[in-house]
Amino acid sequence: MSDKEKRIKIAEILEVEENEISEDDLLRDYDTWDSVAVLSVIALMDEYFDKLPHASEVAECKTIKDLIEFMNE
Amino acid sequence: MRIFRGRKEDVGRAMEFIGEHWKHNHILALSRELFEWQYSRKGKYYFYLAEDDKKKICGFYGIVCYNGTDHPDIAGSMWKVIKTDNPILGMEMTLYVKKDLNFRTNFAPGLNEKARKITELRGGTPKKLNHFYRLNDMEKYEIALIRTKKIIPAKKEDIQFERISTYSEFSKNISVKMLKEKIPYKDEDYYKQRFFEHPVYQYICFRLSASDGDENSFLFMRRVRHGGSSVLRIVDFIGNDTILGKIGSQLDKLMLQYQCEYVEFYCLGIDPEILLSGGFSLRDENDKNIIPHYFEPFERKNIDIYTGNIDDARYHMFIGDSDQDRPSIL
Fold this sequence. Notes:
The structure holds 2 protein chains of 2 kinds.
Chain A: H1 3-13, H2 35-49, H3 55-59, H4 64-72
Helix pairs in contact in A: 1-4
Chain B: E1 2-5, H1 11-22, H2 27-30, H3 32-39, E2 40-41, E3 44-45, E4 47-51, E5 57-65, E6 73-81, H4 89-101, E7 105-106, H5 113-121, E8 127-128, E9 130-135, E10 159-164, H6 167-172, H7 176-180, H8 188-196, E11 204-210, E12 217-226, E13 229-238, H9 248-258, E14 262-268, H10 272-277, E15 281-282, E16 306-307, E17 317-318
Parallel strand pairs in B: 6-7, 13-14
Antiparallel strand pairs in B: 1-4, 2-3, 4-5, 5-6, 8-16, 9-14, 9-15, 10-11, 11-12, 12-13, 14-17
């Protein structure tokens, strides 16, 4: 999955359009960055990367860039 | 952030949080009596709070506890966190409750869209409660919208309905063993508080007995009114499920006695064939009738009620569980 595709998936999870997000955006500024979003990230990583991170690891990501890098690890 | 179990002195703060962040004028933000009834049991409180370093409440999770064992069955109810730096505060509250109460099961009817999504993301499938009803044979319906009037003729069965008016009458006829066999296990104290000590609603309890040996079953109901009309709602049942396949004619008598348009019964875990043979109809997506469930305020529409991923077929759920069938308007 390319970084562009990851951004599209992250935008879906945050319930915004892909062109509305920037990698420097703070996740906490999104109202939709909550338990559902964190579980959605976990489900996404399970489906596409065969990884099952702990919710607290996902919650440590501060920005969208952090989230993309976390998926790349 | 600190998560902790609420105490008596936290009730006021919890009520304020509900009023501010769940819904202005929510009944649990207005009535301390109802809040204490809902979230306490034998002097212990069953609600959890999350507060930040400045003691600001950031999360609330209310629990209905069905029994007093060390490994109880519980039902989560109101669950709300506000926006903080911790996106998983809600999840952390549920984990805290798991550790604190060491519960056996935690399922509740009335999952909202977000809770259903969480169930799915955790790999489960939310279950829909079956909505059964039996119509009274009337010419005109004010509450229900009846497009296809179907009333399955009730078999005349030798079933007795004995009105139980007090908790002591109920207690005399119930055994701990009988209650413990059920999942969830709701103990006598639960039934006492839930149906005999409700601060607002009057519940109707019947002891059901059959000549063929089905004895000591109990049906809890409530008459729900709208305008000049009313309906009967079955909110809980204890006993052998098979007796429910024989109660159609007794329900007809009750509907005449209470002048009700229908009896409704939301449930999960009871074989639908039993209820269909008892004269109930299943209100599903193919049913053209509207059998309202919301009365405070009244809404003439069908309501689907969901719960979590219950994978134990023995688990029985009713609409009196958790904080359902609760007044919304003071």
